[in-house]
Amino acid sequence: MRIRVKFCGITRHEDAVHAAILGADAIGLVFYPQSPRAVNLQQACQIVKALPPFITVVGLFVDATMSYIQEVLDMVAIDTLQFHGDESPEECSRYNKPYIKAIRMITGVDLLQLAQVYKNASALLLDTYQIGVPGGTGQVFDWNRIPKDFPKAIILAGGLSSENVTQAIMKVRPYAVDVSGGVEQSKGVKDAAKMAAFMRGVYSVY
Question: Is 127 an annotated catalytic residue?
Answer without folding.
Answer: yes
